[in-house]
Amino acid sequence: MSSSFSDLPPAPLDAQEKEKNMVTVISAASTADALTGTFTERLQAALNEKYTVNMRRSVQTCVLLEADRCLKKHYKRLKAFQRKFALHDTASDIVDTLTFIPPHFRREIMYR
User: Which helix (H) or strand (E) holds 43?
Assistant: First the structure.
């Protein structure tokens, strides 16, 4: 009984290979919508217009990345402590624009 490698079933993929091979299909309309609009609109769409308490750290990360993007060109002329303060202040201002999140949850986003 001879067998070749082509007769064998494919080996199961590990988690990393599965993640690499995953393909997300996004329609052209949703891609165009994701690239336009304000940060608040894009984040609201990403969260399916629903916010729950366990999303705090994820929203905080998105807000900090957006604040960093906004401040990129100003970092050169700021000292380290000024950068940290500017980043936090900008992120806090961005959080205030997230009107789809109730005010009592907005206050908690920038904790820690």
Answer: helix 39-46
Structure tokens given for 97: 């624009």
Q: What is the pLDDT of residues 38-52, one digit of tens each?
A: 999 999 999 988 899
Tokens of 103: 């005010």
More confident residue, 99 or 2: 99
Residue 82 has pLDDT above 80, yes or no: yes
- Other Cβ atoms less than 10 A from the Cβ of 63: the count is 22
**The Cα angle at residue 110 between residues 107 and 112, in degrees rounded to 5:** 125
5 token code pair: 């490698």
Could you give the CA distance from residue 70 to residue 77 in angstroms, rounded to a whole number? 14
Q: SS3 of 96, please?
A: helix
Cα dist. 17→13, 20, 21, 22, 26 in Å? 6, 5, 6, 9, 21
Which one has a higher pLDDT value, 30 or 102? 102
